[in-house]
């Protein structure tokens, strides 16, 4: 019995069956603990296109296999892959006997991974939801390391954002039309129900979609493919939530052709790792399938995942030095409890109906229709003619007074005439106040709102930036084996979106109403809606901004794969059409003639080509090459430069051009597996839109603007990015119980040109200027590093797996070359030139001084040690298990990202703010977790 833990066990005597024209082998797959047969296990012969599934008895059979040495791969979700060497004899079917599958410990690691990466580490503008989610399905050791061990430091494979990958459920694309990124919270907490996944890396071919240059992830929720049985688990952690309970049951296909799966979970925390980050999430999943005959089945999947969590703030070095890196400025005490002002709520249920049509033994056509409705809300405080409630507002911090000459008082010598120094009592008072409190004062806001002088009018209120989406999606995919050597995949996808975006008042904080005006403007410009001016807003009302975004997209692809003895290759092409439009529901006072009603339609038509080949040196050694060129429509968020209050299309916006290439050497052997890859990717003509308050912008650039300080939207177009690097991963089974693995990633991810920067300033809008754009010329970004991820990462791990079903593993990870997100406006001529007409620069703006000010910050490298382990027991027909992990064992403090503030937009303003070494508008940073743990107890029955 001790040998059961070895990857394969032959317990039946090998015998030969003679059959006319039959050459191949058969076998039976069992679970190592329960000894039960495993259905729907994928068995494939490496170096060929031959693939089959085990039947209800766990049996697989291959016929018409080439004579000689073959590698058989057996894999199934939740189990370790098996790679067996088989010698095929002409005219005979070889019986391999029983193949035993061991539980895959990495599936439990992925449960822990999701705990970490699901947390949004940034603020609303960080663009940082989970970037590692696309990696969860991969069995490749490099991809597993990138997700589990490097994901905690926000590592991105090949430096690519997840909008360049494609995530699907039953063929339905889950990437949002708005920003191109999947909303992983839509199925968060349903790990057991979403384990059946297929993954492709980079631009490698997928059977389901043309895909992007990061890869594809297909989640299959067809009820009949789930293994019959149940699972209940309970977990504890100290990351973004504290506790999780989960239960899942799959019926398997019964004799009447019915199968169903149900799953539910709850996750919660009064406070996560960072201060004031409450968490509450409930998830439900149901999938049912009716098999009518051998050719037709109908499946329905419904997913509901509700998630509400308190955000944590990015902070400057000044704030972190005073309060610590776990400090969060978004919360304050109310009635003895911590209340977060910035909660994010996601509630977007998904319903998918799928028809499975097996046209014949060589061709399948699957068609899905989905409908998704729900909302995403991000809360924050609003205030009118009242003090800013943010405890880290720059005027409340010591740096404000340290940078103010009028705050300094001279210190005299005993003779009362000689000045020996200066004191700054205001800075000392601000420091003491911030140290003693430094949180949102909810009570003060309630008192202000109920003061008699306001007569029931709230000067503070809590609202949500709200998005209510309604989206239809239809998808049809055909897979056909045209001959023994040629297969075809083709698909079409249609999406129609109505996205309602508005500001919703959620709490008057003791007052009776809130006035729907902007007090920073005068006259009609104060009105959010001239059709309904001076409205009194109550709880649940819409105010501020209100519009719909309408989108219709279509895409299709074809792909042909060719398989020969020494070479496999593929060719694929795609076409897509995207149509975007804004429909304004308010007539904004600033853009009275350009905000109400529908904008023009913006249409993008795009195409893509990709191809690749695999050269098979022998059954264990391969060379693999992939290349792709495609154009990609800009995300809808970038098409409208200021969608909240006008219909203007972003100037100079066009489709991106994307190209990539990679070359790999791959070894696949029963004890040793490795891959080394070199890659190149270039993204051209992309657009980025951001919003901030800037000082020193329009005094010379916009003559007659009347105010050099403005809240602006910054539009950067024509951005080129270049990513080059290499990946390496290996694992070696030293003995039957000890395995060593290692991974390495080295990349250089840079801006590759100097794009153009324009600014939209609402303060310059008028009846005759409904598109107040100022061109700032080039922003000098070329050579700067892309931000937000380590560009070097290395890992070495060791795992021991005992025959008595317990195991332990450890790995050490080194991550380096992570850079801050730079400000584009600071790298324009506006920063250094005072008089553009005559080319006169600011005093002191020498080459050395400017270079020092604009040098990109590089974060310190970090070494993280992680431990994992577990134990499982068989009790009767049930399996009990324990999984535990400790990440960042030595509690290392490290920055995972950050961004420069753009407030001080010219050199004199910037220098004055940095004169004392503690700028009021210094860079803001995100931090990784310190030492964290994850413990999971489960039972499979």
The helix count comes to 9
Structural class: mainly beta
Tell me the fraction of residues in β-strands, as a range.
over 45%
Residue stretches low in confidence (pLDDT < 50, at least 5 long) are 1-20, 111-138, 700-706
Structural overview:
With 941 residues, the chain is mainly beta. It is built from nine helices and 49 strands. The strands form nine sheets. The chain has a 26-stranded antiparallel β-sheet that branches. Strand 14 (243-250) and strand 15 form a beta hairpin. The longest helix has 13 residues, at 105-117. The protein starts with 15 loop residues before the first strand and ends with a strand.
Key attributes of the depicted protein:
48% strand, single chain, mainly beta, disordered N terminus, 49 strands, 941 residues, four-stranded mixed sheet
Question: Mind sketching the topology for me?
Answer:
Blueprint: E1 16-18, E2 24-31, E3 42-45, E4 51-53, E5 59-62, E6 68-75, E7 82-88, E8 92-101, H1 105-117, H2 141-148, E9 165-169, E10 172-173, E11 197-201, E12 215-219, E13 229-237, E14 243-250, E15 258-269, E16 279-291, E17 296-310, E18 315-316, H3 317-323, E19 331-334, E20 337-340, E21 343-347, E22 350-360, E23 363-383, H4 398-402, E24 409-412, E25 419-423, H5 425-436, H6 442-450, E26 460-481, E27 486-507, E28 514-515, E29 536-537, E30 542-563, E31 567-584, E32 597-598, E33 602-616, E34 621-632, H7 636-639, E35 656-668, E36 672-694, E37 710-733, E38 738-751, E39 756-761, E40 773-778, E41 792-802, E42 806-816, E43 833-835, E44 840-841, H8 847-853, E45 862-875, E46 878-887, E47 895-899, H9 907-913, E48 924-927, E49 932-940
């Amino acid at each position: 019995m001790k040998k059961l833990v070895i990857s394969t066990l032959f317990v039946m005597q090998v015998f030969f069956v003679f059959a006319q024209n039959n050459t191949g082998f058969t076998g039976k797959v069992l679970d190592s603990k329960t000894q039960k047969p495993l259905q729907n296990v994928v068995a494939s012969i490496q170096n060929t296109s031959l693939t089959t599934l085990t039947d209800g008895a766990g049996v697989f059979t291959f016929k018409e296999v080439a004579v000689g040495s073959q590698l058989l791969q057996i894999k199934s979700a939740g189990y370790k892959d098996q790679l067996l060497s088989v010698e095929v004899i002409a005219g005979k079917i070889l019986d391999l006997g029983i193949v035993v599958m061991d539980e895959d410990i990495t599936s439990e690691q992925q449960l822990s991974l999701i705990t970490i990466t699901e947390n949004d580490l940034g603020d609303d503008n960080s663009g940082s939801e989970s970037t590692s989610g696309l990696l969860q399905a991969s069995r490749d050791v490099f991809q597993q390391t990138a997700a589990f061990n490097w994901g905690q430091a926000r590592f991105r494979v090949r430096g690519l954002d997840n909008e360049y990958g494609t995530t699907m459920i039953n063929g339905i694309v889950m990437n949002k039309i708005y920003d191109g990124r999947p909303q992983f919270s839509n199925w968060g907490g349903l790990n057991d129900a979403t384990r059946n996944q297929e993954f492709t890396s980079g631009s490698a071919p997928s059977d389901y979609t043309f895909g992007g240059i990061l890869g594809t992830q297909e989640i299959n929720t067809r009820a009949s493919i789930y293994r019959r049985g149940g699972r209940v688990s309970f977990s504890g952690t100290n990351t973004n939530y504290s506790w999780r309970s989960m239960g899942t049951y799959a019926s398997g296909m019964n004799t009447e052709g019915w199968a169903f799966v149900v799953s539910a979970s709850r996750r919660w925390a009064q406070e996560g790792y960072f201060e004031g980050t409450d968490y509450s999430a409930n998830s439900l999943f149901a999938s049912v399938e009716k098999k009518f005959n051998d050719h037709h089945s109908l499946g329905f999947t419904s997913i509901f995942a509700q998630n509400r969590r308190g955000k944590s703030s990015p902070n400057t070095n000044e704030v972190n030095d005073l309060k610590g890196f776990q400090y969060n400025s978004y919360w304050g005490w109310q009635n003895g409890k911590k209340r977060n002002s910035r909660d994010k709520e996601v509630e977007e249920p998904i319903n998918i109906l799928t028809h499975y049509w097996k046209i014949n033994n060589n061709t399948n056509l699957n068609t899905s229709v989905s409908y998704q409705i729900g909302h995403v809300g991000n809360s924050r405080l609003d205030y009118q003619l009242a003090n800013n409630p943010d405890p880290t507002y720059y005027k409340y911090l010591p740096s404000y007074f340290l940078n103010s000459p009028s705050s300094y008082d001279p210190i005299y010598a005993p003779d009362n005439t000689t000045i020996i120094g200066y004191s700054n009592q205001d800075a000392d008072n601000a420091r003491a106040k911030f140290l003693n409190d430094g949180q949102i004062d909810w009570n003060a806001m309630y008192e202000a709102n109920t003061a008699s002088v306001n007569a029931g009018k709230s000067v503070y209120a809590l609202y949500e930036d709200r998005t209510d989406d309604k989206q239809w999606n239809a998808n049809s995919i055909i897979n056909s084996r045209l001959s023994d050597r040629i297969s075809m995949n083709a698909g079409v996808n249609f999406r129609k979106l109505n996205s309602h975006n508005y500001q919703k008042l959620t709490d008057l904080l003791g007052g009776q109403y809130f006035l729907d005006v902007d007090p920073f403007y005068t006259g009609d410009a104060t009105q959010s809606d001239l059709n309904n001016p001076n409205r009194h807003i109550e709880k649940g009302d819409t105010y501020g901004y209100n519009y719909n975004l309408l989108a219709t997209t279509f895409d299709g692809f074809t792909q042909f794969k060719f398989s020969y003895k020494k070479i496999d290759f593929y060719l694929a092409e795609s076409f897509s059409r995207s149509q975007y439009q804004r429909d304004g529901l308010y007539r904004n006072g600033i853009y009275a003639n350009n905000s109400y009603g529908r904008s023009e339609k913006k249409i993008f038509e795009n195409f893509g080509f990709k191809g690749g080949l695999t050269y098979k040196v022998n059954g264990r050694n391969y060379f693999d090459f992939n290349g792709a060129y495609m154009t990609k429509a800009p995300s809808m968020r970038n098409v409208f430069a200021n969608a909240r209050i006008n219909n203007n299309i972003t100037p100079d916006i066009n489709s991106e051009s994307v190209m990539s290439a990679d070359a790999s050497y791959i070894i696949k052997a029963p004890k040793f597996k490795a891959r080394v890859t070199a890659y190149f990717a270039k993204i051209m003509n992309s657009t980025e839109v951001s919003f901030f308050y800037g000082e020193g912008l329009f005094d010379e650039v916009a003559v007659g603007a009347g105010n050099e300080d403005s809240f602006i939207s910054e539009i950067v177009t024509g951005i080129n990015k270049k990513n080059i690097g290499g990946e390496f991963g290996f694992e070696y089974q030293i003995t039957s119980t000890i395995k060593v693995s290692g991974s390495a990633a080295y990349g250089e991810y840079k801006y590759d040109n100097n794009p153009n920067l324009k600014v939209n300033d609402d303060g310059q809008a008028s009846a005759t200027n409904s598109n107040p754009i100022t061109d700032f010329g080039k922003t000098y970004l070329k050579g700067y590093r892309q931000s937000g991820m380590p560009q070097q990462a290395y890992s070495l791990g060791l795992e021991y797996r005992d025959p008595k079903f317990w195991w332990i593993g450890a790995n050490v990870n080194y991550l380096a070359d992570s850079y801050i997100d730079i400000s584009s406006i600071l790298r324009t001529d506006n920063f250094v030139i005072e008089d553009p007409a005559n080319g006169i620069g600011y005093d002191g703006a020498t080459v050395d001084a400017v270079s020092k000010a604009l040098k990109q910050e590089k974060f310190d490298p970090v070494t993280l040690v992680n431990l994992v382990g577990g134990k499982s027991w068989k009790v009767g027909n049930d399996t009990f298990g324990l999984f535990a992990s400790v990440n960042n064992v030595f509690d290392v403090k490290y920055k995972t990202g950050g961004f420069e503030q753009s407030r001080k937009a010219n050199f004199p303003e910037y220098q004055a703010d940095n004169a004392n070494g503690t700028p009021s508008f210094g860079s803001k940073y995100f931090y990784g977790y310190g030492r964290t743990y994850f413990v999971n107890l489960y039972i499979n029955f």
